[in-house]
Write a structure and sequence with these properties.
This protein has helices spanning 36-48, 125-128, 131-145, 149-171, 181-215, 233-239, 241-247, 274-296, 313-323, 341-345, and strands at residues 2-11, 14-20, 25-29, 67-76, 79-90, 93-100, 103-105, 116-119, 222-227, 258-263, 266-267, 301-305, 329-333, 348-353, 356-359. It has 361 residues and is an alpha/beta fold. β10 (258-263) and β11 form a beta hairpin.
Length: 361
Amino acid sequence: MLLRRLQLRNHRNYAHLDISMEPGVNVFVGANGQGKTNMLEAVAMLALSASPRARRELELVGPIAPASRIEADVESAGRRMELTIALNVEGDRARRTIEVDGARKRAFDLPGHFRVTLFWPDDLGLIKAGPDQRRRFLNQLLVQVEPGYARALSGLRRILEQRNSLLKRISAGEEQTGALEIWDAELVRVGSEVVRARASAVRELAPAAARCHSEIGGGEHLEIEYLRPPDDLGQAVHNSLAEDLRRGVTSVGPHRDDLRVLLGGRDARGYGSQGQQRTAVVSLKLAEAELVARRTGERPVLLLDDVLSELDLERRGALLRHVGSGGQVVITSVDVGPFPPDLIAGATVWSVEAGQVKPCG
């Protein structure tokens, strides 16, 4: 998996960017706020079809025009493709258009053409934040490797919207409870598909994450557990009806799933230093990259956004040994200080300043 060329037009603080990437390690150096993260965000969007950090797509459109554009030439299994995401402002929202080799695609059809593994400073939320961030971790992995998962996830969201709306109308006396039957059946069908995919992924992730954790200096044994709905999802949905009607929301289903991360048998959220938690997160991400490679036969492009500064010297070196062992890597940093000289000697280094990217040296 390779990112050959990236072009940005009016994406956040980039008025215009057109760069060619090298197959190995690409390092982008610059002060905070210059656009390093914005560039990685654009690359990630090409894999996920949506921003991994923006709440609204309107945030992505820069100031010089009511539209933005991300284009890339990528290579997968020896095949070259052109991927495009265009955003056009319409009132208080931005309409998204996606193309693969010039052909229009729906949002859930884009993932799988290009694959990445993301390392963000905010990834510590995988340990410390709520369940939604851990579900997002699984979703961002699975849309890239599991055919049909993105479509199922989109369907699940639509089902929940319809069911929750219907619950409120039933509580208001505007509908009968029998109207729920079709949506309950769909929730069980699509929800079970999502749960099966997540359970399978966690079974693969768990041993790989434990091994990576040991290799990068984690002292305690790392475990991950999938907290999923009851096996009989249909019965659980039926049993929750009274509570659902009272609250006006669906209380049972894969939208309530969680991951539990354990260090030495104890929940990592309440145990260990921030450094230990950071090491656990890096281990999960390395395991994710391994899973993508194992399932697809290709290493994903690794995107590391200023994560080295958060690690001590030993763990930093262990991580760089992992990421430098093959495949394409895009790393951002405020300077080249955290990098071993031999890695920098073999890398392509760029400077980033105020949305301008130039080669160093």
